[in-house]
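Nudix hydrolase domain-containing protein
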Amino acid sequence: MAPLLPRKSDRNEQIESQISYARLNTAPVILQVSRMDEAVEKEVKRMLNGEGREVPDLDSVPDHAQAVTLKRNICYIVSAVIFNSEGNVLMVQEAKRDCYGYWYLPAGRMEAGESIRDALRREVKEEAGFECEPITMLLVQEQWRNWIRFTFLAEVTGGSLKTIAEADSESLQAQWWDRKAPLTLRGQDILSLIDAGVRYRQKPWFPVSLPVNMPCSVVCQRPLFVFSCEERLWLLLAKHTAGSETRLHLPVIVSEKGYSIEWAGYKFVKDCMQAMHRALHFNMLGILGVQHDGRVLGQSDGICFNTFATLDPSVEGAELSSPPLPDNEMYTWCEVTNQSLKGQILQRLKDRSFPPMKSL
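Predicted structure tokens:
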């Protein structure tokens, strides 16, 4: 998705905004930076380790956002990329009327009360005959939040290959595919998923990432929002005030139906930095973790994506020596002074070591 840009009628406004932004290179700016306490550092470390954290506060909530209920206003899909010792990939032959006889990865929709991992195990067993365990999440895809698909690299732990004699409404049969023999595929989209699995087996480019069972009522993201310049590093934090005490935490951004999760991040930038948003580029680099627990239908069907995102100038050649000032007093930047933590974040940023999230 492109940076936040105005309509053509707003082009003059955009140019003026970009010129003002570029001039910040020479204009003296006093940046009010809050102190990052141990609680925030601990929260960031947990995210970098792929761990979950409860979602007590929602910081950016659209007017039309609502709690999600599986099969009513949200659809989650799981798919598995599984290889045998020869490097062949597990495929299943479809039994559904609209794609009868075509081949696809083991995949299907999550059922009420399932965790993401349980859904993966069930689909592979029903369609291919094998028990399996996920190794890592490879990527997440979404289609304007109409559906969200989780693709895993997984391994066989038991069972046997489903034969044509065992055909049922779930699938006709399963087989191992060497990716060379002719096979009529239900969709070409799975080829990129298989390629991702091949590449990860050859050289993992991000740490193992598996969903954490933690409840959430909405679809949201908790971005590790990074701004870096000349080895200095800042994180954008939200403020939560209770009485006389103000607590800082990573912001939680709710996604509404009909719009992508990534778009919610763009809108957050616009709302948080209204004076400069046209000259800024929000870049969601990938996922640090996924939190979901669907055991209570209608109350915990949501998902929190812990993401890694950067905020960069969208004006070519423009630079900043410090992050742009938020217009909204609910948010503040904190410089990361813990050298170990800063090193971890900068290394992940350099290596781009995250499972990707893609909007289709």
